[in-house]
Amino acid sequence: MRSFAMIPGAARWKNAMRKSSAGTDHIVHARPENCIRLSDTIGAVAFETLPFLGGRSVEFGFSLPGRGPLATPDTVLRMATKADALRYDSVFVTDHVVLPTSMARSVYPYAPTGQLAGGAAQDYLEPFALLGWLAHATTRIRLGTSVLVVPYRNPLVTAKMLATLDRLSQGRMILGAGVGWLREEFEALAAPPFEARGAVTDEYLRLMRLTWTSDPVRFEGTYYRLSAVHAQPKPAQKAGIPIWIGGHTDAALKRAGTLGDGWHPIGLRPPALLYPDEYAAKAKQVHAWAQRAGRDPKAVTLTFRCPMEVRSKRQKAAAGDRPLFQGTAEEVAADIRTYAALGVSHFVFDPTHQESGPVLANIERFADEVRPKVVRAETVPPTRRAVTSPKVVRAETVPPTRRAVTRSTIVRASGRNRRTRA
Predict the structure, then answer these.
(1) E strand or H helix at 76, and its extent?
(2) pLDDT of 362-387, one tens digit each?
(3) Is 401 within a domain?
(4) Structure letter (DSSP) for residue 322
């Protein structure tokens, strides 16, 4: 594994590294078109990773444009169904309720300026309504928040909405959870005190998990008390909806280790960088907190969210060091291997363009050129294969009971294998 000093782009941003605030909000831009839909009956194949991933599975997802001019029904639907059709593992939406006209007392942790790009006067789609719509429009891809600002909402209401979404989607929900960074929004929503947002988040998450796994529910906390109540429905996922903790501050690392099913930081967006050496050190802290809490450190999924662009070999890279996860298919695959060697098993990618054409091409290019370099599907009996053309996807009949337990599929397109993860 390369040292920090050898990682492309390190020299440019090393001096800019600093601890960010506990914020977990993100901005993404994308507008894909020309979606295809997979049949409801897609065959399964065994999935395995290449040797350099140490036998672990690795998954890939995309973030959706939740705000600004690209946050339109047509754009979001096309991107989500495209990712579903191309056998990506997840799509994520972000969260804000209001954007104050003045954010002078807050620092956005994922931009060098500390300011949220695009200003306050822009559309911002509500995450739960959006996820419900996407649950109906997609068939297999996992749906999540990246991230939901937990203190903004009553925890019982949040838990019920998520449980309902998990039932509607047949067990596909992931809760990416954060504490928030925008003080003015806390005040506008009459949310719990900004200074207490970490403790409130911890308590709300404990209560939410309890409502998903127990009945009746009783809870006695500092910020919320609850006599015996029935909280129904329960999620389709029997162990409850997975909770991925956003952020990379010391408090976030402790929260991920003690409460989370996963750690979900965002990196390569200065000043939040998380180059491999830094990521490894923080992942070690997450595991240490898990062990201290009496948990199995391996039970905490390590994820990584970052901008990603696959360039053709004909495209000329910008002058200077190559940013990680931006380059040719071979270069992006090498970056995936570097982070996978640290234990990352789920990557969530932010588009780097605001135009629909380049974003759509990037989604397809990654699926066609990068993913086969880091995962492979084994051969299966012909009766379980899916058959495709470039524009039409059809699958041979598979008993319905097999669909709920499939691990992966193989799609043959234009005479070559398109290897994908289910």
Answers:
(1) helix 73-85
(2) 999 999 999 999 986 432 333 333 33
(3) no
(4) P
